[in-house]
Write a structure and sequence with these properties.
The complex is a heterodimer. Chain A is mainly alpha-helical. Chain A is about 70% helix and about 5% strand. In chain A, strands 1-2 form a two-stranded antiparallel ribbon. In chain A, strand 1 and strand 2 form a beta hairpin. Chain A is flat. In chain B, the strands form 4 sheets. A 6-stranded mixed sheet of chain B has the order 2-1-3-12-6-13. Chain B is globular, with a radius of gyration of 25 Å. The chains are: A mainly alpha, B alpha/beta. The interface between A and B is large, with 49 and 49 residues.
C-alpha cells in the first residue's frame, strides 16, 4: 500500500519502517469488526472449554442430579496424576510414539515431495492418489487395519505365510512390541500425505534459478539439496513438525479401535487415559488434569521443535 | 468504501442470524407446549443387540399394542459394554434428556447411583413391583438403599461344545477344566477343528467375567471379607496359570487375547472351534440358520471346575437391567415401559422364543419355559458368582483386573507380577482420589 512513516510494521533488517495512515487504520478497524463474529465463535468453541477444563482440573468434582458440584482443591489432582504409574507409562508411550512417527513421516514425506516436485506427466493424478489415506476417516481406516492385522483371518498373515516369510500366524495386535509397531505403520500410512502436501507447497516456493545457479557452480545433487533445498524448506518442515507433534499427542482413535489400549496397557496413549478417567470412570478432576498436563507438554515441545529448526513459521530467510 | 459498508452489513447480518439460529432450538424446547390428548409420546430406548434380531422389536410391538399412546424408538448401543457406559455417562452427566430409558449392565448401579446417572426406582414404584423378581436380583441393582435398575434378563457363562466332534472322537462331555484343555488339544491334533477352546480374553469388562469364573473355581476371591484385595493368593496364581496354559499349550489360539463376545461367537458359529465359553445368547445365536454353520451340532452344559473340586464350576452373573434417565421428560411413560417389559407376558416371550434367562420369578419357575429354553434348564445347576461391583469405583476395579490379566495372557508379564500389579492397583482403585 502507500508508503508512510510510522514504525508499525517492522520490515526486514535495514529497511525503513512504514507509517500507518488514517486510511489504513479505518481499513484495520473494518477488518476487525468483520472478523468479530468468527473470533467470537472461536472463543466460545476453544477458549471457553479450555479454560473450563483448567478450572475443572483444580477442583474435586462430584456429579449430581443438577450438574457438577465443584470443591476447590488446588493442585491435588495434579499430585494424584503425577504419582500414578499408569500416567507415566502412557506418557512414555505417547512420547516414544510421537518421536518415531514424526521422524519417519518427515523423512518419507520429504522423499515423496521431492519426487512429486518434478514436472512429470500424470503428476496431478499421483498427488490425488497419494492423498487418499489422509482423506479417509481415521476410525474407518483403523477398522480396516484391524482386519488386515487380525491374528486369525487377517490378510497380512495370509500374505506373509504364502511368501513363506512366517510359518504361523502372528498376533500383530496382541503382542506388546508388535502392537506398537503395527499402530505406527498404520499412522505413518495415514499421515505421510499430510506432511508431503506441506513440504510440496514449500518446495514449489523455491525459485528455479537458485538450482540453476547451483548447477552452474558445479554442485552435486546432494549439495544442491543440502545447501539450497533444505534451508529454504525449513519453515515448511517446522510447520509440518509442529502440526504432527500436536496431532501425535492427541493420538486416540488408532489405539482405541486397533487394540483398545492393550495388550495390558502397553498401547494406552495419554488421550486414551484421559478419556477413560473422565468418561468411563467419572473422575473428572484427575482426568482433566491429565488433559491440561498434555497441553502444557505439547506447547513446550512445539516451541522446542521450532527453535530446533531455527525458524519462525511464515518467515522466509533471504 | 460503499462496497466495504455493504460487506460489513452482510457479515453482521450473517453473524446475528447465526447466533439466533443457535439460540432458538433450546428456547423453543423450554417454551411450554400445548399437549394434544391424541398425540403419542415417543420415548427413546438405548439398547444393544441382544440375541440377534427380533427380541427388542417384539417387545416394542407388544408394548405399543397395550399402550397406544406411547411409541418406543430404539437407539442402538455398541457391542462393547465399556464403550456404552462411557457414552451414556457422558450424555446423562451433561444433562441430556435422551435416552429416556436405557439398557444397562448389572454392574452399573454403584457408579450410576453415586453419580446420579439413573433414577432411583424405589421412589417411583411401589414395593410390590420389586417382589416379581427372582431373589438377589434387586439387591444387585441397588446402591446404598436405592434401587436403580429393573432387572430385565439375567445371564451367566456356559460351556458350549460341538456334539458331533466329541462323538467322532469318542470323548465324553468334559466336567473339569483340565478335560476341556486335553479334549481341545486332541481335537486340534486330529485336525477335526481349527481351534480348541475360544473365550473372551481381550482387555475389557468381559475378561473380568471370565476371570471371576476361573478364580472362584480355584477357591480365590478378589476382595476378602474386610474389603482388602487378595488377588495375589495361590488360588489366583493357579487360575491365571491355567488360563495362560490354555494359550501356551495350543488348546486356545493366541488370538483369544483379542477376542470379545462377537469374535468368540463368530469362531464357534463358523465351525472353527470345539468349545466356547459365552453367555446364554450363544444358544439361540448358534442355532440361527443364516448366522451359524453349526445348527443342530451344539450342546450346552454348566461350566466345569478344576479337577478335585467336584460338582459344576462357577458362572459369572451377567445380565442387563433397564434404567431410567433422571433427566427424562417422560418419566410416567418410562415407568409404564419398565412395568411391561419385566411383566409376565414380555418375560415369557423373551424366555421361550429368544432363550434369555428371565428375571421374573414366575416365568423362571414355569416348567413350560424350562422345556423350551435349554439354557434355562441348566442355569439352576450352576454356582453363580458376582463381580465386586457394589462400589461406585467399579470401573477402576475392573480395569485393574482386566488390564493385568490380559498382560499376563499375552505373555507380556509373568503371572506373579501381573497379579501383584493388579493387587496394588486394586488398593488405590477403591477411592475417588485416584486416576
Amino acid at each position: 500500500m502507500a508508503a508512510s512513516t510510522d514504525c508499525l510494521i517492522k520490515g526486514m533488517e535495514g529497511e525503513t519502517c512504514m507509517r500507518v495512515s488514517k486510511l489504513d487504520r479505518q481499513y484495520a478497524m473494518a477488518g476487525y469488526i468483520m472478523m468479530a463474529p468468527a473470533l467470537l465463535v472461536i472463543a466460545l468453541v476453544t477458549i471457553f472449554p479450555i479454560g473450563y477444563s483448567i478450572w475443572m482440573s483444580l477442583n474435586t468434582i462430584q456429579s449430581t442430579f443438577t450438574g457438577f458440584s465443584f470443591t476447590f482443591s488446588g493442585l491435588t489432582n495434579y499430585a494424584i496424576v503425577f504419582a500414578n504409574q499408569q500416567f507415566w507409562q502412557a506418557l512414555e508411550f505417547t512420547v516414544f510414539y510421537a518421536i518415531v512417527t514424526v521422524a519417519v513421516e518427515l523423512v518419507l514425506g520429504l522423499l515423496v515431495a521431492l519426487a512429486l516436485n518434478q514436472p512429470i506427466r500424470g503428476r496431478g493424478v499421483a498427488v490425488a492418489v497419494m492423498l487418499i489415506p489422509w482423506t479417509l476417516i481415521t476410525v474407518i481406516s483403523a477398522q480396516m487395519w484391524a482386519y488386515i492385522y487380525n491374528g486369525i483371518y487377517g490378510v497380512l498373515n495370509y500374505l506373509l505365510m504364502q511368501l513363506h516369510i512366517i510359518g504361523a500366524p502372528v498376533l500383530w495386535l496382541g503382542t506388546a512390541g508388535l502392537a506398537t509397531f503395527a499402530m505406527m505403520v498404520a499412522d505413518i500410512w495415514k499421515t505421510t500425505p499430510f506432511v508431503t502436501m506441506i513440504l510440496l507447497a514449500g518446495l514449489q516456493l523455491i525459485p528455479e534459478d537458485l538450482y540453476e545457479a547451483a548447477k552452474i557452480d558445479g554442485a552435486s545433487v546432494w549439495k544442491r539439496f543440502w545447501h539450497v533445498t533444505f534451508p529454504l524448506l525449513r519453515p515448511s518442515l517446522g510447520l509440518a513438525t509442529l502440526f504432527r507433534i500436536l496431532q501425535a499427542f492427541g493420538l486416540f482413535d488408532l489405539p482405541f479401535v486397533l487394540t483398545g489400549g492393550g495388550p495390558g496397557t502397553s498401547t494406552t496413549s495419554i488421550a486414551m487415559l484421559a478419556y477413560r478417567a473422565i468418561f468411563n470412570d467419572g473422575d473428572y478432576g484427575p482426568g482433566t488434569a491429565v488433559a491440561v498436563t498434555t497441553v502444557g507438554i505439547v506447547i513446550i515441545l512445539a516451541l522446542a521443535s521450532l527453535k530446533a529448526l531455527r525458524t519462525q513459521v511464515g518467515e522466509v530467510e533471504s | 468504501m460503499k462496497k466495504n459498508r455493504m460487506a460489513l452489513l452482510a457479515v453482521l447480518a450473517t453473524g446475528m442470524f447465526a447466533v439466533t439460529a443457535c439460540a432458538s432450538p433450546s428456547q423453543s424446547a423450554a417454551a411450554p407446549m400445548v399437549k394434544k390428548a391424541s398425540a403419542p409420546v415417543t420415548i427413546t430406548w438405548s439398547s444393544g443387540t441382544v440375541t440377534g434380531t427380533g427380541l427388542r422389536k417384539t417387545m416394542i410391538q407388544l408394548f405399543e399394542k397395550e399402550n397406544p399412546g406411547i411409541k418406543v424408538q430404539i437407539l442402538q448401543q455398541p457391542t462393547n459394554t465399556d464403550t456404552t457406559r462411557a457414552t451414556l455417562s457422558t450424555q446423562i452427566s451433561g444433562g441430556s434428556t435422551s435416552p429416556d430409558v436405557f439398557m444397562g449392565d448389572v454392574i452399573w448401579p454403584g457408579q450410576f447411583g453415586s453419580q446420579h446417572l439413573a433414577l432411583p426406582l424405589n421412589k417411583y414404584l411401589p414395593k410390590s413391583f420389586f417382589s416379581r423378581f427372582a431373589p438377589g436380583l434387586v439387591d444387585g441393582a441397588s446402591y446404598q438403599g436405592n434401587v436403580y435398575g429393573a432387572p430385565w434378563y439375567a445371564d451367566a457363562g456356559f460351556l458350549y461344545y460341538r456334539k458331533d466332534l466329541l462323538q467322532a472322537a469318542h470323548l465324553p462331555v468334559p466336567t473339569t477344566w483340565e478335560q476341556v484343555q486335553a479334549d481341545s488339544l486332541k481335537l486340534v491334533k486330529m485336525h477335526k477343528v481349527k481351534y480348541g477352546f475360544v473365550w473372551e480374553g481381550s482387555d475389557y469388562e468381559g475378561l473380568t467375567c471370565d476371570w471371576m469364573e476361573y478364580l472362584s473355581d480355584a477357591g480365590g476371591q478378589v476382595f476378602n471379607a474386610k474389603g482388602q484385595p487378595v488377588m495375589d493368593s495361590s488360588a489366583a496364581v493357579k487360575a491365571l496359570s491355567f488360563m495362560r496354559g490354555l494359550i501356551t499349550s495350543g488348546a486356545s489360539p493366541a488370538a483369544v487375547t483379542t477376542f470379545q463376545e462377537p469374535q468368540a461367537m463368530n469362531a464357534f458359529d463358523q465351525g472353527d472351534a470345539a468349545f466356547l465359553r459365552n453367555w446364554d445368547y450363544a444358544w439361540s445365536n448358534s442355532q440361527t440358520p443364516n448366522q451359524s454353520r453349526v445348527v443342530g451340532k451344539v450342546g450346552v452344559v454348566p461350566l466345569p471346575t478344576f479337577a478335585g473340586q467336584g460338582g459344576t464350576g462357577h458362572a459369572c452373573i451377567g445380565g442387563w437391567d433397564i434404567y431410567i434417565n433422571p433427566h427424562s421428560k417422560h418419566i410416567a411413560q418410562d415407568l409404564k415401559f419398565i412395568e411391561f417389559i419385566t411383566g409376565y407376558q414380555a418375560e415369557y416371550t423373551m424366555a421361550s422364543k429368544f432363550s434369555e434367562i428371565p428375571t421374573n420369578y414366575a416365568v423362571q419357575s414355569d416348567p413350560k419355559v424350562k422345556d423350551l429354553n435349554p439354557v434355562l434348564a441348566i442355569v439352576s445347576k450352576t454356582h453363580l458368582v458376582g463381580r465386586p461391583s457394589q462400589t461406585p469405583y467399579y470401573a477402576k476395579v475392573s480395569q485393574a483386573i482386566y488390564t493385568n490379566i490380559n498382560a499376563a495372557l499375552s505373555g507380556q508379564v509373568s503371572v506373579k507380577s501381573a497379579l501383584a500389579q493388579a493387587n496394588s492397583q486394586l488398593k488405590s482403585a477403591g477411592s475417588s482420589s485416584s486416576l
